[in-house]
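User: Please check token order:
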Amino acid sequence: MDSLNPESPIAAEPTVTSSPRVWKFWGTSFWGLVVFAAMFIGQLAVVAWFLFRQSEPINQETFADAVGIVVSNGLTISLSVITGLPAVALALWIAIRIKGARFADYLGLRSFSWINLAIGVVALFVLVMGWDAVSRATGREVEPGFMGDVLKTARADGALWILVFAFCVAAPITEEFFARGFLYRGWSESFLRVPGAIVLSSLVWTGLHLQYNWYFLGEVFSIGLLLGYLRYRSGSTWLTIILHGLNNLGAVVQTILLTNS
């Protein structure tokens, strides 16, 4: 495997990489919080809309129960994930525009080679299968219960395809723009360099999945490290978006099969 030396030719970005028009550690951290807030607001808007549509009046005593019902619904979760995408894209556009950089260049939205795609698919498959094997060997569930519950409610509402689009298209684009696109770009050009940027962006990405228990968070973190390395190796965030989407698609299909068995 290639060294994580930032001077490695594989890691070389286009001319814009060495440009001073890049947010470094603190700038990237600040705008990362802004982007996260935008994502949260975009997703919260859907939850609020569903709450206002409740047929029963909501008061202080019933508010917590009403929120619990809404946020556990597959359709609500799917639509909130989808609305998070334009909110994140807008916040990122503002942050990048301030630096006078091009959106696609800054986030690494460039082509990648077939060999990097093949390496990514094989590595991701081996990693996920390894975690699944450990799950079975230790008597753990292969898929988190959260996924099964969300899928059942989405199917009951006739929203299964909305869920598939949200989890396999919208979520990968949103999260990869944020983690492997924006955070990695700025942090890798700070004192953290490439290794630190991969680790820290993976930790932040893992923090977006707190609905899972510690075991599945460990799996998410390891996948984040792999995606971070592939982002470094290929210089392409489109590659990590595709691999992220394939991973989520595999998880959705596996959950469908398990819930039908």
